[in-house]
Please model this.
Amino acid sequence: MKKKVLFFFWIPVFCLVSCRKLLNDAFDLGEEEGTNGSITWKYDVPEERIIVSGNCDSSKPFVAASLTGIHADRIRIIEIGWGSGTFTLGDYAFCAFNNLKKVTIGSNVITAGKCLFDGLELDELNICADTSGWNEHWSDGCNRISSDSTTWKWVITGDTLYFTGTGEIYKYGSSWSSLYFTKVVVGGGITGIRSYTFENCTSMTTIELPATVISIGYSAFSNCTNLTVIGIPSSITAISSYAFNGWTSAQTITLGWTSSDTTVRSLDGLSRYSTAATIKYSDGTIYSN
Model:
């Protein structure tokens, strides 16, 4: 009889503990906080978002393991490098966050290693830091980095940067040069390349412009030293001054119309004071500028 009483006593206790755990797991709407040395973080449970701040130098750079007690697969959004102090991101810093989709890097991140997002597919990346002190291969290995504007979208797949949508594309953050890609494909529907868009993008070696592009802005392709050839579609009506500044005679601009074409175009960016590039019509005739 005593055993039966004890048995029935423990049933409600077990149920209470189990139900409490289930409710906590299902309705945990709070925040988790943690520290590791000089790094602190707050984890927003429902949003699966973590905010990381503090100091982190090159002797002990930030990597996923820095967030002790946090399971990496629980994190979809990271905001890092805000507040006081300076931050260093280690090689492969985010690659253990398998479900990571959005990253915002604050102005305090002054140095970063290689392959930060190796193997990941990001939906959005916002960089508010100066990337000049970062490893030049920091974006290598990321399967996809993408983002949206109001009318167009960009995505990096492998080494190729794709643009789709409508309207004029413009520079990303401080510059597209903060991302790594070798090829650019601009989809039909894009109507212009705004000023400074690809300035100093030295990793870019090829670009494809569609027949919908009608304008190229000031310094849009300046100092793209490894872009050896660019084709300009016949739809172009205006190329602003210094669009190809810093180009040498070893680089070629091929126009999509013949030397006999009488269409009126404003081509200040092809004048000799704007560029030293070799410029040819589609029929092979050298453009006189």
